[in-house]
Design a protein that fits this description.
With 130 residues, the chain is of the alpha+beta class. It has a single domain, classed as Glutaredoxin. It contains four helices and six strands; from the N terminus they run βααβββαββα. Strands 2-1-3-4-5-6 form a six-stranded mixed beta sheet, with helices on one face. The protein is globular, with a radius of gyration of 16 Å. It comes from Priestia endophytica. This is Ferredoxin. Keywords: Plasmid.
Length: 130
Amino acid sequence: MATWNLDNTKHHILICNGSSCNQNGAEELTQSIRKEICERDLDDVIHTTRTRCNGRCLDKCVAIHYPKGTWYKDLKPEDTVTFIKSVLEGNDYKEKVSHTFTDEGFVRNSNVPKGVSKDKEKVKKVSKIL
């Protein structure tokens, strides 16, 4: 296992590789983003993490940019250049934004499904079964 030196890291991109995203090209997206970062010699500046499900399956494929806190939807490998450019410039790739972070919390774009509320009682019951 590697322990990366993050001293020069300015951006962290979390790329969903949960089952819905994987069925819709998450592996190809992950490799495309990492290749673009490598070709631009930005490995020290942009760190990527492949995650499991991020809970926004209708938005597949999902990536999240921190520290800005912007969630992206419907990303495809052909979006990579524009996506990385937006990350570096501090702009949002507006056509693909699902949620933005503000002092009030996450704000959903109007064209994005709201999703279901988390039911704590249901979670407790499932946890007991597992």
